[in-house]
Amino acid sequence: MENVVVRTVSLFLAVTTFLGSCESTSSPNKQERPNIILILADDLGWSDVGCYGGEIQTPHIDQLAANGIRYLQFSNTSKCFPSRATLLTGLYAHQVGFAKTHTNPIQNGITLGELLKPTGYRTLWSGKHHGIENPIDRGFDRYFGLVDGASNHFNPGIQRDGEAVPAQKRPDRTWYMDSVLHRPYNPKKGFYTTDTFTDQALKWMELYKDDSSPFFLYMAYTAPHDPLMAWPEDIAKYRGKYKVGYGKIREQRLRKQNEIGLFDQPNPASPIDFDLWDSLSPEEQDKEDLRMAAYAAMVDRLDQNIGRIIQKLKEQNKLENTLIIFMSDNGASSEVVKIPGNGKIGTVGHWESLGKNWANVSNTPFKYYKNYSYQGGIGTPLIVSWPRHIKNVSAINTTHVGHFIDIMPTLMEVSGATYPKNYEGMDIVPFEGVSFYPTFRGNTVQREKPLYWNWSDGKAIRQGDWKLVAEGEQSNWELYNLEKDPTETNDLANEHAAMVQQLDSLYRLWEATHE
């Protein structure tokens, strides 16, 4: 009898353990589908937020990390509009007509709105598109924002009484409020892109707070993309902080990254690519301090607005079952735009860019910038918070290698949506990404296909820990083992010629089939 009892208890424990493990890896059922908020920053450097080593005050973003997971090996495409198209569709930009231009409609794929809306999600989008289509026509119930690229943060339209002429590339940027076209968009005083995008999202969250179905909110901010413009009180927080110079700030970030355990080895830094601070005159140093203070203020204000969204979720008792994903569309930018203005950095009348020196610091510890296929261009901070489902909070995932093409399959699994073979008479290309939902539960994901990058003069392929990368049409391939050398400082191409040849063949095949 005793043996029977032991066998029965053992069987019960085995079944219980099996069911528990199944529960820990299974997708949410329809009744507990989460709200989803996808937050995309614009031209944010890898180390700009606090939980990735930055000195900028980002307590709300850091709290998302404390309640969730930080990923260290996630990638975008190194450029705004290809990244945004890839994020929306789960396909490489080359597959949807966004390899070289944003002036096409999205082809061959569906958007996240078109994926989630048929499942009952309320689909909302506030912010930047960088395409030509109104998101209302591509699966979103509500849209407010800038369809084009960069614009003036304080006034994207015509000059207002009592203000300087707004510095901008052109005043006829396309904005939509649902189906209403504004070209130009002429807001009242008090407008600031980051605040206004959030204001609209909060209005929707209040309007639909009693919906029985979940919502998907895409917050596509334009900060901290140039022009560097911020509220004076935010700039004041950082004025003088950066007079220690590029090198000291970079050293501080490297030290903090090591202290919080982002890397297994100490100071895995790429070579510096900024001017010597002491070579600058006091006047130049003061200007550089102001430039970075304005940039930091934009990141700070971005964080403040993310805090407003989190607070609304708390008030509505929805935070526990809301999946929040935070990313950047490319690395910090070294581009410098010259537009005549009133010369006052941070204000409506002056277009200022971050520039190479501070961009090198923002992308610490990686090398190069936006538009490059090195890690400084394609690396993005990725934070995932979902209190109901992520139990190992404050985790740092050092091993998962991901890409924007993975967002579509991940949200598909989370929501229970089905990816169609065709949509409104259009054949749909199968997505090439993989769901990383299992990593929310501490499990690993097997990626069978390599990842690819191709933008402007840059190109790259990554398979496992090996990355082949080149910049410039006539440049030779460089080969790096990113597990041992995450900052791409030790080119192994000559030592591993067979690996170069293997990856080159795979890249050429992908390139030929992704025109």
Could you characterize what this model shows?
The termini are far apart. By secondary structure, the chain is α/β, with parallel strands linked by helices. It has helices spanning 2-25, 59-66, 80-89, 112-116, 193-207, 232-238, 246-259, 282-315, 355-362, 375-378, 407-415, 437-440, 497-513, and strands spanning 35-41, 68-75, 122-127, 142-146, 175-177, 180-182, 215-220, 322-328, 379-385, 395-397, 402-403, 422-423, 426-427, 451-455, 458-463, 466-471, 478-481. Helix content is 31%, strand content 16%. Helix 6 packs across helix 8 (282-315) and helix 7 runs parallel beside helix 9 (355-362). Strands 1, 2, 3, 4, 5, 6, 7, 8, 9, 10 and 11 form an 11-stranded mixed sheet that branches. 50% of the residues are buried.
Based on the model shown, name its key terms.
515 residues; eleven-stranded mixed sheet; 31% helix; alpha/beta
Q: What's this entry about, in short?
A:
This protein has 515 residues and is of the alpha/beta class. Helices cover 31% and strands 16% of the residues.
Spell out the blueprint of helices and strands.
Elements: H1 2-25, E1 35-41, H2 59-66, E2 68-75, H3 80-89, H4 112-116, E3 122-127, E4 142-146, E5 175-177, E6 180-182, H5 193-207, E7 215-220, H6 232-238, H7 246-259, H8 282-315, E8 322-328, H9 355-362, H10 375-378, E9 379-385, E10 395-397, E11 402-403, H11 407-415, E12 422-423, E13 426-427, H12 437-440, E14 451-455, E15 458-463, E16 466-471, E17 478-481, H13 497-513
Parallel strand pairs: 1-7, 1-8, 2-10, 2-11, 3-4, 3-7
Antiparallel strand pairs: 2-9, 4-5, 5-6, 8-9, 12-13, 14-15, 15-16, 16-17
Helix pairs in contact: 5-8, 6-8, 7-9
